Amino acid sequence: MNKPDQFVNNNPLQNLEDWENDLKERYPQTEEESDNKDGYRNYSNGSRQDTVREFYRLNHQYQTYDFVQQKEQEFLQFNKQEMGFWEAVDFLNTLVDDSDPDTDLDQLQHLLQTSEAIRADGHPDWFVLTGFIHDFGKVLCLFGEPQWAVVGDTFPVGCQFSDKIVFPEFFENNPDSKNSEFNSKYGVYSPNCGLDLVKMSWGHDEYLYQMVKDYLPEPALYMIRYHSFYPQHKENAYDHLMSQHDHNMFDWVKKFNPYDLYSKVPTPPNAKELRPYYEDLVAKYLPAKLKF
Ligand SMILES: [Fe+2]
Ligand SMILES: [Fe+2]
């Protein structure tokens, strides 16, 4: 049985950014922030913590090996919709975060803040583009997918769940944790087999990776595919599955992470002014139509 109970609220987060805000608390950028953990939170006490907890309860219970396989079959045929790049931006932007007291950033603003911070640091153009598109996979929400199957820290399925994953106790309810095929250290994998052979919990990272894998350089693809894999890029919980090549490429994933989590530029990027630059950049690397 891997169908969420119909009476369970599949979307406990008030908005998707609650997950990212929780990450900022878990992984503060500066010592000052860790001393002042609630500094940027304004919710009445407890409510975000409760919804984030409930979100992970669902995520950890339902992200099984079979579930990931089902979602791969459903979404990796890319036969849902074709969109031009800017059409996709507009579509993604209909995912409005309207209840967060901290920010009036829409999805496009988060993407531009990330990519503009990367550009300001003088990184190569494909790195800028990566920042600009890295959360495109969140359109899954607009295809009716529950929050717990779109965002949240990702982790390997098919082997033992690490206790370094946030809220590890919730894996108790995941049937894979009772399945001897999947619950050993290596499960269906072999030592240092390399992450390309490892199935990750399903979400916006893998979906976008599969969509753009033929168009971008390898470091960009690692950043897209593993940017939510906090149990590894922050906790090193899965060294035993990684190849040396993965470790080398994770330098890029780690380089990307601060841009994703902490880039706040003083003046919000002007989407209209920036559009010609991004149009050229997108045209340089991506096809005119993207398949979703
Ligand atoms: Fe993301
Ligand atoms: Fe992001």
Textual characterization of the structure:
- It holds the Pfam family MIOX.
- It comes from Echinicola arenosa.
- Residues 1-46 are annotated as: Disordered.
- This protein is mainly alpha-helical.
- Helices cover 46% and strands 2% of the residues.
- A two-stranded antiparallel sheet has the order 1-2.
- The longest helix has 19 residues, at 244-262.
- The two termini are 28 Å apart.
Task: Outline the secondary-structure elements.
Blueprint (H helix, E strand, L loop, with lengths): L16 H10 L4 H5 L11 H16 L2 H11 L6 E3 H8 L14 H14 L4 H9 L5 H4 L61 H9 L5 H9 L3 H4 L10 H19 L8 H15 L3 E3 L1
Antiparallel strand pairs: 1-2
The protein binds fe (ii) ion (FE2) (2 copies).
Give me a quick take on this structure.
The protein has helices at residues 17-26, 31-35, 47-62, 65-75, 85-92, 107-120, 125-133, 139-142, 204-212, 218-226, 230-233, 244-262, 271-285; strands spanning 82-84, 289-291. The protein is an all-alpha fold.
